[in-house]
Amino acid sequence: MKISNRIKIFSLFAGICTVGVVAMAFTTKVVDNPPVTGEVEAPVVVKNMLQRACYDCHSNKTDIKWFDKLPIAASIVRRDVVTARKHLNFTEWDKLSKGEQDSFLWEAYNMINAGNMPLPEYAALHSNAQVTKEELAAFRAYLETKRVKVTNTIDTVHTAAVTTTNYPIAPTGIQFSPEFRNWQVMSTTSRIDNTTMRVMYANPIAMKAIKEHKINPWPDGAIVVKVVWEKEVDSEGNMHPGKFLNVQYMVRNAKQYESTDGWGYAKFETPTLKPYGTLLTAQSCASCHKAANATGGIFDLPTSN
Amino acid sequence: MRFPIILFIATMLTGSCMQQQKEKPAIRPYVFNDSGLKVITTIINEKAGTVSMLYGNKAAMDYQINGFKAHQPNEMFQLVTFREQDNKFWFGSYINGELLHVETVKTQAAGQPTYNVQHYNGPTISAADPARRTDFILSLPPAFYPCEPHLSTDKL
């Protein structure tokens, strides 16, 4: 056999293989679409936006494009969709409580507003996934109708404070300590998406970082503690901290807490300071705090612009 | 969905030039210095659009924690009032903004507590108000904190 013939046969064979592989790749199911159990409810403009910009990942109505089926793409797409659905699924909406539904809507707005969702790499390729200014405004107006009103009057009887020094430890290894009471107040906030008010304390390392504008990223050792209460309203309409809910920690250690963007998370609930959640909880804390990436993961900084 | 690496690189190369520069947030300077005072409580006045932090020295904290019995001399209270503003990073949250004024009340061995106010921004509090403001400040109930560091060591 002549060399050229061999090459011809080889090329033909290679060609058949390539076609076969590509065809297989294109027909492979990237993800299944399980049944829709209940869809998110929102005004038409908002719902259309969610369907167009979010449903490919956050629903059981994923619409796979041809380029999503390419061999490397397919596995990335699958991973994104599986993760996204686990976090938030607009077509299994009925599985959430009313309160959870509302808090996901506020979070969705803030994720879009921060430019985190839809995932930027996705939005770059799927040009119709961009959320317009008008849609964002409509979403905001819709949320305004969901403002929560405070009705609790001042009547909370406080149980005794913790008197032990054997303070609880969270799954992330962070231990509660009353030391934050000596730190500077970083800020105080009042929420309208729920009925809570908060005071944030920053340890000296964190405070120094704020003053020197060195918060991208924050230095190791920075700690921010947040104390959360239900609001109570007095006869003159002033709001006071009522029922104590929890204390939350963010502890900076870029290496130790790499999987949660360099912050260790902890939450201690009720006056007995019961550690809340598991290591997985910290992942969900970190997911939402991505919306504050402009300030290194910390939301509550009073800005002047 | 993400997409093939090559396409990704191509998009980054063409897209990066067009991407807007992210606005760098300007953080308000921290004007109030607590000088070691501790937080007693926080009060939100939605009508006025303000939020105030009440601070106290140890004597003031003791008065509060002991259930408002008798004043001792040298209690110092400071009510620090800020304008509330939208939290830039979370729609649904209001945060303390511009510092408006700091009111200070000090108790004395005898007679009325002293009152003074330092203005930073915003409208001034009328001079006729000191007695009413003093009563208001001294009547504010403490917020519940799950731990009172100085209480557990000094009082129990």
Order of helices and strands of chain A: HHHHHHHEEHEEEEH
Number of domains of chain A: 2
Which strand order spans the largest sheet of chain B, edge to edge or round the barrel?
A: 1-2-3-4-5
In terms of DSSP E residues, the strand content of chain B is: 25-35%
Query: Quaternary arrangement of the chains shown?
Result: heterodimer
What profile does the largest beta sheet of chain B have? 5 strands, antiparallel
Pfam family, one (chain A): Cytochrome_P460
Protein name (chain A): Cytochrome P460
Keywords (chain A): Signal
Description:
Chain A has 305 residues and is of the alpha+beta class. Chain A folds into 2 domains: 27-144, no CATH class; 178-295, Cytochrome P460 (Chalcone isomerase). Helix content of chain A is 36%, strand content 16%. Chain A contains 9 helices and 6 strands. Chain A has helices spanning 3-27, 44-53, 55-58, 71-87, 98-113, 120-125, 133-144, 204-211, 279-289, and strands at residues 184-191, 196-202, 223-233, 238-252, 263-269, 274-275. In chain A, helix 5 (98-113) packs antiparallel against helix 7. Chain A is globular, with a radius of gyration of 25 Å. Chain B is an alpha+beta fold and 156 residues long. Chain B has a domain at 38-144. Chain B has 4 helices and 5 strands. Chain B has helices spanning 5-15, 58-65, 130-139, 149-154; strands at 38-45, 50-56, 76-86, 93-106, 114-119. In chain B, strands 1-2-3-4-5 form a 5-stranded antiparallel beta sheet. In chain B, a hairpin with a 7-residue loop joins strand 4 (93-106) and strand 5. The radius of gyration of chain B is 23 Å and the shape is globular.
